[in-house]
Amino acid sequence: MPITDKEGDMPKANKAGTPIAVSEDVIEGRYAELGSYTVGFETFFQDVDPAPLFQGLPDDKCQSPHWGHVVAGRITFRYADHEETYEAGDVYYAPPGHLPLIAAGTEVIEFSPTAELNATMAVVMGNMG
Questions:
Q1: Where are the domains of the chain?
Q2: How far apart, in whole angstroms, are the C-alpha atoms of residue 32 and residue 92?
Q3: Is residue 5's pLDDT more than 90?
Q4: Distance from chain centroid for Cα 103
């Protein structure tokens, strides 16, 4: 059975209607909760290797799974034994235990379980100071 909002409509989000939650020189991020998932609309203005921000998590890697669509640019997920790169038009699944590497000009739409994402982001935000 589909999850619906209080009016009985399917939950939805779009980039234009989702408020900006993060606005930095490197990234603009807009996030909306849909049921037990968070959808993120992220645009990266510079090359980003956020590996240091994941220190303190198991294996110092992101512990949230993500399902996403690369709207523009390129994202690489690094794992202990391999890398996977996705470019504009690709959809992806990144299981826990990855580190992203993002090229300038990349735009993604990404779905993540809210609980796992929030636990990971608490460590990331702590590392940002």
A1: 53-103+114-128
A2: 19
A3: no
A4: 14
What is the SS3 assignment for 38?
A: strand
CA 72 – CA 85 distance, rounded (Å): 13
Q: In whole angstroms, give the CA distance from residue 107 to residue 42.
A: 6
What confidence score (pLDDT) does residue 81 get? 96
Q: What is the pLDDT of residue 2?
A: 42
For the segment 46-88, what is each residue's pLDDT rounded down to a tens digit? 999 999 999 999 999 999 999 999 999 999 999 999 999 999 9
CA neighbor of 102 nearest in space, from 123, 71, 128 = 71
Residue 69 neighbours by CB under 8 Å, 6+ apart:
90, 91, 92, 108, 109, 110
Which two tokens mark 49?
């290797």
Half-sphere exposure of 78 toward its Cβ, with a 13 Å CA cutoff? 11
Q: For residue 99, count CB atoms less than 10 angstroms from its CB and return exposed for 0-12, middle for 13-18, buried for 19 or more.
A: buried
Q: Which two tokens stand for residue 23?
A: 């606005």
DSSP element (H, E) containing 37: strand 37-44
